[in-house]
Here is the input.
Amino acid sequence: MPGDGRPDPRRDDLAALQRRMVGAVHGDAEAFRAVAAGLCDSRLPADKRLFLHLNTVTHALTGVLREAYPATARQLGAERFEAQAKAFLRAEPPSAAVLSRYGAGFERFLAAASRLPEGTAALARLDWAAHEAYFAADAAVLAAAELAALPEAAHAGLRLPLVPSARLLPLPAPAAWARWSALSGEAVVVLPGAGPEGRGAAGAAVWRRPDLRVATLPLSGAELLCLAALEAGEPLLAAAEAAAPAAEPLDLAALLTAGLAGGLFRASEVPCRLDGQRGNPP
Amino acid sequence: MTAQDPVAAETRPGRIAARAGIGLRHRHVPAFLDGALPDGCAAPAWLEVHSENYLVSGGPRLAQLERIRRDYPLSCHGVGLSLGSAEGLDPDHLAALRGLYDRVEPALVSDHLSWSVAGGTYASDLLPLPMTEAALDVVVRNVARAQEALGRRLAVENPSCYLAFADSTIPEAEFLAELVRRTGCALLVDVNNLFVCRHNLGLDPEDWLARIPGEAVAELHLAGHARLEVEGETLLIDDHGARVAEPVWRLYETALERFGPRPTLIEWDTALPPLDVLLGEAERADAVLARAAAATAETSRHRLREPAHAG
Here is the structure.
């Protein structure tokens, strides 16, 4: 066989067979018939044998989606969730073997293809945020004592980036966060919100705490805007001002206290970068 | 490299002895982290994990694995290299595996004689290859590339089979023997897969065991299987969801007679039982290994005495 890059009809034939076969086990009926025609028929018809692989792939991937979207699965019920999961994996099969990454976009698929109520679509977004947070990169977190050690005059210029696992989600359905928290059970640590009652949260933060557990905090509209500004690199004063368009006032101290206690803010080489001192010192 | 332990000399720190290990699954991790194995159960000699479960950026899984590997020799068993892919290997996947292996330094790394990616789509299954010269060339090229990229000798596992291609021309054992000859790779012999293939496709396990190069066998796998009735025919499914079947234990003894003692894994992935059941299976494998080691030693003594008798 020629080395890489040189044409080889035998290798090309195998590549074509494999493309047909991967289509067959993902439910392409025409590819299924074509592959089955090249198999041995002993004792059991070839199509029955090939179907075992289709069934394995379907079962495995619906299981992967069920693990990534546990609250959504509970909300929809097993039969309805499985039907949606099968439709998704036929439309968007995985491209690589790392299945902890498979399922991104299922929440959009559910909302678009299934015309789910906004509340259920929000559950799916929260599920995926928690899934991503669980596997996200590790990072040292900012301790409250480090912040307290800084002179008060420096606070306005502080930049407080969020840890890599943090996800901020606006929630158009106000009851979604409370419903998701209840459905998630012990898999997620539910923190009391500093501002709104959880039942009426305008948004939520989902991240992985230093104890490696995924946590969630309900957010008011003002808190969501403030944290989004911090994540975008705005200094603390500007982030607080970014919350002004929200209907309710921002309790910045309460938000920082909750965030610091849960390890929401990332430590950096300069623990709290001051405005005008972008980047790390030489 | 010795006849009893042909691979240990080539592997990384924390070498794996010819003893029984178990597949580490998430539900059993706390018992190993806390050192709280079930009463009366001996600790397994080593642990094996599925590599792709740990290809993550951070979080609990990696932290737990790094903690556990301090106490147990580790084997990393891949399911996603897709060694039979005619399109070649995914360089990103290889790089991610290299990163993991450099981090946890497994004593053994392995994957399967199968494929799972084509045309940019992944099938979460170990799909079979036609046993042809073209497929052999593809696997040789991919295994060589994987070993170079991973910086390690790779053990390649024989598949469990449910179908056969009409244009296959090379017996599986010959295919694997030629793969070893051309790449220097090791072999992972899954004894349950041999039994499943015998039932489903008529493979002759004894002939298979006789044809593969024994010195390349780095590890053995044992697992349970399920029986599936389809149109009046029974197929065996390699579901890793039950105790090792008695005929598979007997075939395991035959394999050890052929190869001598080898690191042996108890795999159990579905319908996961309490840990004491899994460790009990490992203790049984250890007992078989001990008998095989004694038989090997006796044979060696016999051979040493023979020249004196002759003289």
Observations:
- Chain B has one domain: 8-310.
- Residues 275-310 of chain B form the longest helix (36 residues).
- The first strand of chain B starts at residue 20 and ends at 23.
